[in-house]
Each structure stands twice: as structure tokens, then as C-alpha cells.
Amino acid sequence: MKLTLSLPRSRTKHLTSIPAPEGCEAAALLLVTQDGLQYIAERDPCVPVYYVHLPNLTAGQEMTCDVSPLEEPQAAPGIRHTQENEQVNVTLAGAPFMTFHHSTAYPKPVINPLLTPGGINMLREPMAAYEDGEHPWQRGLTLMQGAINGVDCWNEQNQPGFGCTIQDTMEIGQGPLSTVIATTNTWYEKEKPLMTDRRSYRLFDTPREAVVLDVTLMLEASQGPITIGATKEGGFLCIRVNPTMDAAAGGQMENAYGATDEIGCWSKPAHWMDYYGPVGDEVTGFAIFDHPDNFRYPTTWHVRGYGLFAPNCWMFKDDHHLAAEETITFRWRVVIHTGNTQQADIANRFLDYVDGPRVEWSK
After folding, report:
1. How many angstroms separate the CA atoms of 344 and 337, rounded?
2. Top CATH class, 79-344
3. What pLDDT is recorded for position 26?
4. Cβ contacts of 282 within 8 Å, gap of 6 or more
5. pLDDT tens for residues 109-140?
6. CB-hemisphere CA count at 13 Å for 28?
7. For the chain, where do the domains classified as CATH 2.70.98 start and end?
8. pTM of the predicted model, to two decimals?
């Protein structure tokens, strides 16, 4: 099998995706160029695409490869993880990077910290469960929403009318390009189940200046019909940045259209949003890319100067109804980067995500 690809624009080495050839289910492929260079492509288990790190290519330059299934590929060499005390600790490029917590001591699973290359947390330190204070439910990188069958699954109160999310199962998979934390979860109002989800966090083995974390959330109306209500609160991905990154302090927000303040970004639709600022001696940030297949793409944004950063396609919109057993899936790419929006090349990285190489498969 042969693969010929070309890029619509010149790019340095980057991560991109290519559509899988018809009938190909291999977990990984080996790509060998005419010059004998080798690249590994890793399949997404949810959609028929392969991810691959491409070399420097100029616009229109063709790259032809012989392609074969890669048997028993080695796990991504730059990612390691350990599990203990209801948490998963992940290292990247030989240094601690992030911790995923799934303890029932908290109202929902959360990632915190996410560390800069210098080892400082880019997220606000989490507050205790049900603690009073300034937005204590914004405890890192979480998945939540403010109106599920009328139940507030965003704010946290240990009383009727408010929700929590309990993790049911977890699997950690290691591929040649990434490590995936995949979980199933149940959303509750007190002891009453509302719905279930399947979510995954796919961390790619990338340099620390632009780490790629793909987040997938599939909601299922497993307990009966679901109404996802209009709410100004986030829905579903949420990040609360380190206070030193706040746009109200020394940080900056910027969307795909160049808006750089809360008036221009909050509640406005945009294909991507970046939030960056100083953390210790570094400038680092988070860029979130909305996936073109997501409901109401491009999403609107609940992004605040005090450090909240959340795509929310439910802002000032109609309720959305799921029939019993119906599902809805969301995908986002989070790029955890150094430098500002332009230095991190966020606009081109978004195009890599939604508009990859032109591909021709042949035998």
C-alpha cells in the first residue's frame, strides 16, 4: 500500500491526522519514504484517522511512502505514568507534567497540576470540595455543565439541584505516539443518576513548547431523556488558569479573529481561543481548538479576565434534547504551549488540526 500526501501550506515538523484507508484497522502503520525515512502513524480508536508527526514540507511538495501495518509497536518513549491514591501521575520528556485525579472526595474528576517546562503549575491550585470562596468548582481542567435536566452540574453544592460526576471505570492505553486515559462516568443529582459518559484524554509525545492533549467526551442519555439547557456557564471543557496568567493581571486572551479582551471574546463564536501569561520566569498558555464536527461549531466562549477559560456552545441558545439512549460527542484539542499566541504558532496549529495534508492511497 502506498500513501502520497502534500500540504496545502508550508509547515515545519508538526502533528497532523490523515484519513485511514478503507478497510484498514491496524493500530499503527509504518510509513517509509522513498529516501528510507520512517514515520509511525497511530490510529484513533474512535474515528477512522491516523495521527503522524510530519517533517518540514513546503506547500505542494509531495511525500510518497510505502505503508505497512506495524506489529507490536513500542509505547511512546517520552511519556510515562504511575497510578496511586486514585490519581494518575504523568511525566513527559523526562519531567513531571500532569496529574489526573478521580477520587470521590471531589465532586468530579480533574486534571491538576499541568506543569510548565520549569515545573510550575499553569492551573490555579484546587480548593477543597464544597469550600466557600471564589469559584471553588473551577479546580483545574474539568468537564462540567450548568444545566442537565435542570440540575446544576457546574457549581458545587452538596444539596439537591446540584450535580456531581463519579468515575466508574478507567483504562490507560499506550501507543507509539500517545498515552490515553479513557474513563466511563456517571452524572448524579445526589444519589439519582442523570446520564453517563465516556471520555478520554490523549496526550501526545511532543516537545514541551507545544504539548498536544486531545479531549473527547461522549454523553449518553442512558437513564432516560436528557435536556442540555442554555447556560452561560461552561459546557463542557473548563480550564482555570494560574492567577499570574489572568487577563486581569499580566495575562492575555486572544481568539481566532484577533480579539484580545473579554468584551471581544466572551460569548462570541470562534474556532479557537488562546489564554497565556507569565508563570514564574516563563510565558505559557493554553489554546483550545473546537472540532468541526462538534455541535454548534464554532463554539461560543465563556472566557473571563479572572482566569476562567471554557468553550460553551450553550450560551444564549435553545435547549438541546437527547432521546433515551441517544449520544452526543464533543472533541477538543488543547495545546499547552510556551510563548504568546504568535510565538506558539497557534493559528497554523489549528489548521493542522482541521485541514491536514491532501492524501491519496493506492495499492
Report:
1. 6
2. mainly beta
3. 94
4. 116, 117, 118, 120, 338
5. 999 999 999 999 999 988 777 788 878 888 89
6. 17
7. 79-344
8. 0.96
